[in-house]
TrEMBL record:
Pfam families referenced in this protein's UniProt entry, alphabetically: ABC_tran
Domain of life: Archaea
Domain ABC transporter: 3-238
Entry GO MF terms: ATP binding; ATP hydrolysis activity
Name of the molecule in the record: ABC transporter-related protein
Entries under SUPFAM superfamilies matching the protein: P-loop containing nucleoside triphosphate hydrolases
Length: 274
């Protein structure tokens, strides 16, 4: 097990957000964290990345204890991709991706293997054609893929990805999750990703962790723990899970909206997949 947390409590200016979070994410598996807005998912990833000090409890990540380990040690072994990545607008994509390796080494010298690994990461994501482009010229989705490439190029033991699909088109969402699952298995690394798309989580995650109000309300393989009752309770929606050709799709309808419906057809139009 590469990521273990024990009874983590954390908050901001005395306001509690995480209230006793304990879980384990295993190497070789893709673990997806789900939960409504404000549940504490990003705060949990920031604690694991060593960027937010917990008030109580601890984590062991890639052999490092948090709190305790230095941010440099963590950066060397852990690839953290936050929701909003600032980036350096004047760098080219290949320079930016390669820089993550240089910084993790605590050096300022770019080596050939930094560029080789950076190019490999861009290839994995199918964006090697962007290598010579300047960051400020990229679209939102391209920038998101470049941020993920930066983490992949470091070849860390653990990846922490905060909503890595939020700016991606449907094809790239599936490409990325397929790739992450493959990397987890092939390289025996631990990948923890926050997602809002429950259907993607249901089909790609090896394990899910469902959070609400700063606590974990369910965890385990999605086929064992993800059901209509859980989705309905956690998100406050009416949920249906349908399975077609082995693919599980989560359909939801916000309960408040059904009051607007005139007959059944309006309700059906308001049904969406997540
Ligand atoms: N820097 C901060 N200062 C104060 N409060 C914060 C800060 N960051 C987050 N919070 C609060 O902590 C709570 C949890 O936020 P967090 O970003 O961890 O939730 P989340 O589950 O990732 O939500 P989302 O799905 O909307 O991204 C929220 O109530 C939020 O307002």
């Amino acid at each position: 097990m590469t990521v273990v947390t024990r009874d983590i409590h954390a908050g901001y200016k005395g306001r509690p957000v995480l209230r006793g979070v304990s879980f384990a994410a295993e190497a070789g598996r893709l673990t997806v964290i789900l939960g409504p807005n404000g549940a504490g998912k990003s705060t949990l990833l920031r604690v694991l990345a060593g960027l937010h000090r917990p008030d109580r409890g601890y984590a062991i990540i890639a052999g490092l204890r948090i709190p305790g380990a230095s941010t440099r040690e963590i950066a060397r072994r852990v690839g953290y991709v936050p929701q909003m990545q600032q980036g350096r607008p004047l760098l080219t994509v290949i320079e930016y991706v390669a820089m993550s390796r240089v910084v993790a080494r605590g050096s300022w010298r770019l080596r050939d293997d930094d560029l080789e690994e950076a190019y490999r990461a861009l290839q994995l994501l199918g964006i090697e054609h962007l290598a010579g482009r300047v960051l400020s010229e990229l679209s939102g989705g391209q920038r998101q893929l470049v941020s993920i490439a930066q983490a992949l190029a470091k070849r860390p033991q653990v990846h922490l990805l905060d909503e890595p699909t939020s700016a991606l088109d449907i094809r790239n969402q599936h490409m990325l999750l397929d790739l992450l699952r493959e990397i987890a298995r092939r390289e025996k690394v631990t990948i923890v990703a926050v997602l809002h798309d429950i259907t993607l989580a249901a089909n790609y995650a090896d394990d899910i962790i469902v959070m609400r109000d700063g606590t974990i309300v369910a965890c385990g393989p999605p086929q064992e723990v993800l059901d209509e009752k859980l989705v309905s309770t956690v998100y406050g929606v009416n949920a249906r899970i349908v399975e077609l050709d082995g693919w599980r799709t989560v359909l939801v309808r916000a309960p408040g909206r059904s009051r607007l419906a005139r007959g059944g057809s309006r309700e059906q139009r308001q049904t969406s997949t997540v």
